[in-house]
Amino acid sequence: MRNFALPVLGALCVACGGQVSDPGIQLSSSTAAITNGTFDGNLHPYVGTIAYKSDGVWSRGCSGSMISPKVFLTAGHCAQLFQDSAQFEEVGVSLEPTWNPGAPKVLKAKSVIANPLYGGIRSEEADQGVILLDDGVEYAGRFARLPAANVIDEMFRDGSLIGQRFTNVGTGMFYVAQGGHVRIPSNGERRYSTSVFRALTHGGDWIMFNESAALGYGGICFNDSGGPNLFEGTDVMASITVITVDPDCKNNAVGSRVDTKVARAFILPFIQ
Question: What does the alpha-carbon distance between residue 156 and residue 43 come to, in Å, rounded to a whole number?
Fold first, then answer.
């Protein structure tokens, strides 16, 4: 579990019509089950889970998206967990709408690669990783798409990020909360929720989303990490889930942008 003091950069206030300064916000958990969401079915068939076999048993980890027939995009902190393939009998990707623990359909991986800048001083901007499918294994279907370069900065400057809604998709696991906090169940379904822009943070590299159920929104939680935060109504990613702000996953969450120079420099060579 990671803790970060989150300095918010230029949070935009709709009521006051300008920029407000937020005090530091304590981030309680990394690897963010969709909260206040809906069963996805086949609305986002390109979103799946990292599947791994150990001692003959398949388990699932973080979420992610197919962005080409051979490339599954996830978070860097997720990819780091699976880069050492010697720890596992098999690693791959499952795109089933509901996880079948007894006999999952898994697309076998050839390699797992985290952004080499992740873990250093550029970690916030470099929290991306990819799973490359094995030779002879290929996904045929709709893909998640990358946004134009620096589009979030442009939207921030012209004010169009105010009120922008995002669709969060993930395959989060059951979370037994600690310290008296609520339990957040997952039955293995791919689910989606809708949240709204709150702020840019960590030098603008991360997007913070308001996922308050009281305001009609939903969010992301444990093991949704790596899943896409899509511009609502599209297959275009703004970011990938990396952090949930509170342990009950019901207020704010954060995605690492995929339109930045650092993110694009890592991702694009795998799909061009």
Answer: 28
